[in-house]
Amino acid sequence: MEDVLAFEDDFVPEPNPSIRRAYRPPTRTFSVYSESDGPNELGDTGVSSLPDHPCDFDWSPTHQVSNSSFVQEDISYQKKKEILWKWQMNYHEASIFLDEGANNVKFTSHPRNQAALPAYLVVHNRWFYTLELTSALLLLSLAIVEKPAYASFQVPLGVHASVEAVGLVIVGFETFMKIRWQGVRTFVCHKRSMIKACILIIMTVESVVILIRQSSHFRVMRALRPIFLIDNHYSRGVRRFIRQILQSLPPILDMLGLLFFFMVIFSILGFFLFSDNPRDPYFRTLFSSFVSLFVLLTTAKISLYSTYIALNTGPVNSVEHLQRKLKKEKVKKKRSVAFLIGSTGRFSFPDVMMPSYSQSRWASTFFITYLAIELYILMNLVCFHS
C-alpha cells in the first residue's frame, strides 16, 4: 500500500500538528478595492474545498469496493495526484503574484480562476515566445515571394497562401490563449490586443478567400503585418519607443498644425508664382507644390553633381535632363548618379529652387523666407514643446 501511494518527487508525510499550526495559507476569496491599479478580486484562483494543507487531507479511499484492494489503492493514488496538482497550481499563482509585484505590473490581468492558470503558463513560456516570433517573421517574409516581387522569387499562389494561413493559425492560437487567460472583458479593454485581433480576423478571411478563388487581388491589409511583430514579447523596446512617440504628440499637436498651415500657405503662393515656368516641375500643381516644400523642409541633402551642373550649365528638371547634362559634360559614373537621384523620387534642396532661380534671382527670397519661418522658428518651437 505504501509503495502504491508513494511518489518519487512529491511525497506527502503524515499529518503533523506542529506543521498544521505553523503553515496556514489563506485559500478563501478576499477583496481589495482600489481606484488606481488594484484588482477587484485577488486570491480566488485556489479551490476553496481544499484543506489548508495537504497534510490535513484524509488519504483513505472514500469509495469502498468489495474484494478489490487494488482498485481502492488506485482511487487513493488518483486522489492524491489530483490534490497535489491543485496545490501546485496555487504555488504557481503565488509565484505569479511575486513576479507581478517585482515587475510593477498591474493585477488587472492576473488569472481569475483555476482554469486560467494553465493558459497563463503557456502564454508566458519561452518556447511559446519563440513560436510567436517565428510566425510573425514568417508572415513578414512572405513579401519576398508575393506579387509584386521579382520573377525569380515568386512562388505559386497556393504555396504562399498556405504558409500565410499557417502563420495566422499560430497567431490565432496565441490570441485564444490570451483570451482564456485574461478573460473576454479584460482582453477587449486592451486596445493593442483588440486591434491585433481585428486585423487577424480580416487577414484570415482574406487568406481563405484567396485559397478558395485561387487568385489574388490588391491587398491593403498586408501593410499591417508588422503589428504581429510589434506585439511580440521580444519587441518590448519597439513598443516602448512607439508609446513614447504617441505620448509626446498631444503637447505638440498645436505647433504641428501651425507648421503645416504655413506650409500650405507657401505652397499656394509658390504655385501662383512659379507654375508658369515650363522648366519647373516642382510647382505645376498645388499637390506637387506642397510635396516639394515638404521635401524642402524635411530633407537637406545636397546632390553635388546636380548642384554643380545647375550652377554651371543651367537647372536640372528631371532625371533624363540630368543624364543629358552628364553626357554633355562627360562626367563619369552618370548612371549611378542618375539612379541615386531618381530613386529618391524628388530632388532635395537646393534642386527644388534651381528652376525658378534660373529665371529670376529674386525667387531665392521665397525659399529663404520659407526656410527661416518653417525650419528655424517653427521646428525649433516644436522641439521645445516636445
Automatic annotation (TrEMBL):
Residues 154-300 form the Ion transport domain. It is found in: Membrane. It comes from the Eukaryota. GO terms for cellular component: endosome membrane; lysosomal membrane. It is a multi-pass membrane protein. Keywords: Membrane, Transmembrane, Transmembrane helix. The chain crosses the membrane at residues 151-173, 194-212, 255-274, 286-311, 362-384. GO terms for molecular function: monoatomic ion channel activity; voltage-gated channel activity. Pfam families: Ion_trans. This is Ion transport domain-containing protein. The keyword Transmembrane applies. The keyword Transmembrane applies. InterPro entries: Ion_trans_dom, TPC1_animal.
